[in-house]
């Protein structure tokens, strides 16, 4: 019969006088665009942001990510971070004192910058806002869980609420990664070719034109002749017309703004 390992389930305790948040803090890269994330699930980061060109840029120090475990700012022996909603109702609300301590601590370490709370109630992220965010020193992003956060934190720190769409996620971590992906790719040098962010959907108020690559015939369908003509003016005109037609058809809201 197999014996269970005698150490199985044994607790190992290390004396540690420093709060976890301070221990985990990576060194600040001075002058490098910086994102600080407050979350109950720090293991969710860098997540998809650790992959491809954005992940490579993170490793190369072209941008920096500091993840802060909200639990380490929690109250009492149980590191409590939430409580029941005032006035009753379902679920739990993240406590203002705990969030306030985390935010003040991070602001002290990095200096002022926009603070964003991922929230279905927020304004949806637009490409123009992503460009503004990337031109500041960085952001602090607060990832909500449960039923969200106490309103007083939003008012006190003048936090911007930002949504990624009209649906409800179970937490702000995925939303924060969406915002960061859209933002960090605009930092010069992060994508292989900086021109690719100039000529894409939304950057000029229009959706992108259809794209093609080899083989020149696939499933009986040919690449539009003009794209094979080598005439750059003709190609540019064709792309502009296609962009306009697509935007008009698929996104009349964008088309209206573009025309005005
Ligand atoms: N009770 C809230 C929903 C809470 S969902 C309401 O009705 O508005 C839990 C957390 O997920 C939120 O605090 C927020 O941080 C995140 N979240 C959910 N949907 C989101 C969305 N569409 N965009 C951005 N963050 C979202």
Description:
The chain has 260 residues and is of the alpha/beta class. The chain has two domains: 11-193, Alpha/beta knot, CATH 3.40.1280; 199-259, tRNA(m1g37)methyltransferase, domain 2 (Trp Operon Repressor, Chain A, Orthogonal Bundle), CATH 1.10.1270. The protein contains eight helices and nine strands. It has helices spanning 20-24, 52-59, 96-110, 127-135, 151-156, 173-184, 232-250, 252-259, and strands spanning 34-39, 64-69, 82-83, 93-94, 115-124, 138-142, 160-163, 217-218, 221-222. It has a five-stranded parallel beta sheet. A two-stranded antiparallel sheet has the order 3-4. A two-stranded antiparallel sheet has the order 8-9. Helix 4 packs across helix 6 (173-184) and helix 7 packs across helix 8 (252-259). It is elongated and about 70 Å long. S-adenosyl-L-homocysteine is lined by residues 118-121, 143-145, 147-148, 163-165, 167-169, 171-172, 175.
SSE blueprint:
Elements: H1 20-24, E1 34-39, H2 52-59, E2 64-69, E3 82-83, E4 93-94, H3 96-110, E5 115-124, H4 127-135, E6 138-142, H5 151-156, E7 160-163, H6 173-184, E8 217-218, E9 221-222, H7 232-250, H8 252-259
Parallel strand pairs: 1-2, 1-6, 5-6, 5-7
Antiparallel strand pairs: 3-4, 8-9
Helix pairs in contact: 4-6, 7-8
Bound molecules: S-adenosyl-L-homocysteine.
S-adenosyl-L-homocysteine binds at residues 118-121, 143-145, 147-148, 163-165, 167-169, 171-172, 175.
Outline of the structure:
The protein has 260 residues and is of the alpha/beta class.
């Amino acid at each position: 019969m197999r014996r269970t390992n005698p150490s199985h389930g044994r607790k190992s305790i290390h004396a540690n006088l420093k709060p976890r948040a301070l221990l985990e803090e990576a060194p600040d890269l001075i002058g490098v665009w910086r994102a600080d994330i407050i979350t109950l699930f720090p293991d969710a980061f860098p997540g998809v942001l650790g992959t491809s060109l954005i992940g490579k840029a993170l490793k190369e120090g072209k941008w920096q990510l500091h993840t802060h475990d909200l639990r380490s700012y929690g109250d009492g022996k149980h590191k409590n971070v939430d409580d029941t909603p005032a006035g009753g109702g379902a679920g739990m609300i993240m406590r203002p004192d705990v969030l306030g301590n985390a935010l003040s601590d991070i602001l002290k370490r990095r200096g002022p910058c926009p603070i964003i709370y991922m929230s279905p109630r927020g304004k949806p992220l637009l490409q123009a806002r992503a460009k503004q965010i990337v031109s500041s020193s960085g952001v602090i992003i607060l990832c909500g869980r449960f039923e969200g956060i106490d309103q007083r934190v939003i008012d006190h720190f003048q936090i911007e609420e930002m949504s990624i769409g009209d649906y409800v996620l179970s937490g702000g971590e995925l939303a924060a990664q969406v915002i960061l992906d859209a933002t960090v790719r605009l930092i010069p040098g992060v994508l292989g070719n900086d021109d690719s962010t100039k000529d894409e959907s939304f950057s000029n108020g229009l959706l992108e034109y259809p794209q093609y690559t080899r083989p020149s015939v696939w499933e009986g369908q040919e690449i539009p002749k003009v794209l094979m003509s080598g005439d750059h003016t003709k190609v540019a005109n064709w792309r502009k017309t296609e962009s306009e037609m697509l935007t008009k058809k698929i996104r009349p809201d964008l088309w209206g703004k573009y025309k005005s």
